[in-house]
Recover the amino acids of this structure.
């Protein structure tokens, strides 16, 4: 007979007895179907069972120990003992009682309660699982397994974790990550929860000499707990200004697409290591009366605007004149020495000090206003010195070759005269001659007008810089008119950057390498910055530094191609090289073309 209980669950007792099955099927089956569809709970006849589960939907919060419950009961007397098993959700939820037992004696009076809880997991994703039920009726060989179709419970799990990307950096009082010029600083990035798929973090915002390595990070569901370190490096520049930049983080992949990092940006302060200053080539000059001598002035760092320097004598000495009285250094010509010429008349005597000062003109680099100490040049005028005559005041010498010139006096001396011939210490010039003893040429009143030959040899070096060397000729420490020989050493080396190979074929999940090396010795440290990575391509290093001592040692760059398991080759990537520093500043270097192929051994077709 049909029974409706207080909770409007329906069960059919008689239909499970063999003797009444024909009667029920013929008389009540159409009506029964309509009533079952209308019931708020589920009470279905399945084989030899009538089972009700209530409710059919549970809402559970992750890490909430209370959980939620549902009940299972039989609505008709079974033909034997019944064991109902709760199936499903093992990886997501905990079920306190997965095995429910009913007997013929207690089937009607006792319903079974199932408690469902959700343990905390590592991700931030809400999940839904479905619990189904299997039943065994009877004992021993007479036991019958019954699949309880449509007797299921849907469990909605609310996750309590929050997705997040945490950036950890040690900042200064102004909230900036400080990076020294030609130095680096680090910060870390981590995911707060386990992603559903690979998450990519792209770091942008670099400018000028600033680079980051790596510029792209990958977090997988397996390695997300790592905290990779980002290295921020600043190369050298020529100015004395602190620079700033703001690094950004773009996040995509899995359930993290669109999530913002915290903090979203990292402000960078690059502290410059180049002090402003002015270099004066000498602090003293000893000039023979009626002669002239020169010295040079140059800025130590690149200015932001033009710098003007005045040149003036501190005493009124009509026998000594200085030219020019002012000089300017622009942002492009700051490192070109300016020549100051000091001229004495034949009647000049005494001494004079030449002063240099920054001029406070409009449109200037105001940073150079702070440079208050510029070296002075003390000039001493020597009298009764014979003039020195050179066959030439300039000479071009090829590297590895030699050329000669001659020296004589302009007038007869009153006794023996020693003329000291010297090239600067550390230059690539060697001076020799049949009459040159050490660094001295000796003239007497008998041979003063006879030219003596000096041979100038230029040694081979590894640099590709054309050098200019001044060879001086002094008598008793005095510089006389036209007594300096300018030697230009013409280079036979070629400046360049060799990159090999220029094409790479890298399978997904694998890596390839290429090398970079300089072709000549630089005048200062040279940095080669690698850029152009995209997609799943990363580098083991994005900046190479070559010094004046290791420039000839090839450095290796490893190119890694991530395995995205899509079975499709990725777009080719072009790696570019920016060269800065020394005489290599802005020298060009070839690109490397990277083709990403599919590894057939690692890819399986998605089902």
């Amino acid at each position: 007979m049909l029974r409706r209980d207080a909770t409007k669950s329906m069960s059919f007792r008689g239909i499970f007895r063999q003797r009444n099955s024909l009667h029920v099927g013929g008389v009540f089956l159409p009506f029964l179907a309509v009533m079952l569809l209308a019931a708020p709970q589920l009470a279905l006849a399945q084989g030899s069972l009538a089972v009700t589960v209530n409710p059919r939907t549970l809402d559970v919060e992750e890490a909430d120990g209370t959980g939620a419950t549902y009940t299972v009961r039989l609505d008709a007397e079974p033909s034997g003992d019944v064991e109902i098993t709760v199936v499903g959700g093992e990886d997501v939820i905990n079920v306190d009682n997965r095995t429910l037992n009913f007997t013929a004696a207690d089937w009607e009076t006792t319903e079974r309660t199932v408690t469902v809880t959700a343990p905390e997991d590592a991700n931030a994703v809400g999940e839904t699982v479905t619990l189904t039920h299997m039943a065994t009726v009877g004992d021993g060989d007479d036991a019958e397994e019954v699949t309880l179709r449509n007797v299921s419970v849907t469990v909605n799990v609310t996750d309590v974790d929050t997705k997040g990307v945490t950036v950890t950096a040690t900042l200064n009082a102004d909230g900036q990550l400080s990076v020294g010029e030609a130095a680096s600083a680090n910060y870390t990035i981590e995911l707060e929860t386990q992603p559903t798929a690979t998450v990519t973090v792209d770091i942008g915002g670099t400018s000028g000499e600033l680079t980051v390595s790596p510029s792209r990070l990958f977090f997988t569901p397996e390695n997300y707990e790592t905290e990779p370190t980002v290295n921020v490096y600043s190369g050298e520049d020529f100015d004395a200004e602190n620079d700033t930049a703001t690094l950004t983080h773009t996040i995509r992949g899995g359930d993290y697409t669109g999530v913002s990092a915290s903090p979203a940006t990292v402000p960078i302060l690059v502290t410059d290591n180049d002090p402003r200053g002015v270099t004066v080539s000498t602090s003293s000059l000893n000039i023979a009366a009626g002669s002239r001598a020169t010295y040079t002035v140059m800025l130590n760092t690149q200015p932001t605007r033009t710098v003007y320097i005045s040149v003036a004598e501190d005493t009124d000495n009509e026998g000594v004149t200085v030219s020019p009285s002012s000089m300017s250094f622009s942002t492009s010509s700051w490192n070109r020495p300016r020549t100051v010429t000091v001229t004495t008349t034949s009647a000049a005597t005494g001494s004079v000090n030449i002063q240099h000062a920054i001029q406070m003109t409009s449109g200037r680099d105001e940073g150079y206003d702070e440079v208050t100490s510029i070296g002075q040049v003390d000039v001493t005028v020597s009298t009764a010195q014979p003039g020195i005559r050179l066959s030439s005041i300039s000479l071009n010498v090829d590297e590895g070759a030699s050329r000669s010139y001659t020296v004589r006096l302009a007038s007869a001396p009153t006794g023996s005269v020693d003329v000291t011939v010297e090239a600067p210490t550390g230059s690539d010039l060697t001076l020799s001659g049949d009459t040159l003893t050490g660094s001295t040429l000796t003239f007497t009143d008998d041979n003063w007008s006879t030219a003596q030959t000096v041979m100038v040899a230029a040694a081979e070096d590894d640099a590709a810089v054309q050098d200019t060397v001044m060879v001086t000729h002094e008598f008793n420490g005095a510089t006389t008119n036209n007594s300096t020989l300018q030697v230009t050493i013409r280079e036979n080396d070629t400046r360049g950057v060799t990159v090999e190979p220029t094409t790479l074929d890298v399978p997904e999940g694998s890596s390839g390498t290429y090398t970079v090396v300089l072709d000549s010795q630089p005048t200062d440290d040279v940095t080669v910055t690698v850029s152009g990575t995209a997609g799943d391509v990363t580098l083991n290093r994005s900046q190479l530094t070559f010094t004046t001592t290791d420039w000839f040692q090839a450095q290796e760059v490893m190119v890694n191609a991530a395995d995205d398991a899509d079975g499709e080759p990725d777009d080719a990537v072009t790696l570019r090289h920016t060269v800065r520093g020394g005489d290599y500043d802005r020298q060009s270097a070839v690109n490397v073309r990277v083709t990403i192929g599919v590894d057939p051994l690692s890819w399986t077709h998605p089902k």
Observations:
- The chain has five domains: 2-158, 165-271, 278-382, 388-490, 497-597.
- The longest strand covers residues 144-158.
- The longest helix spans residues 29-38.
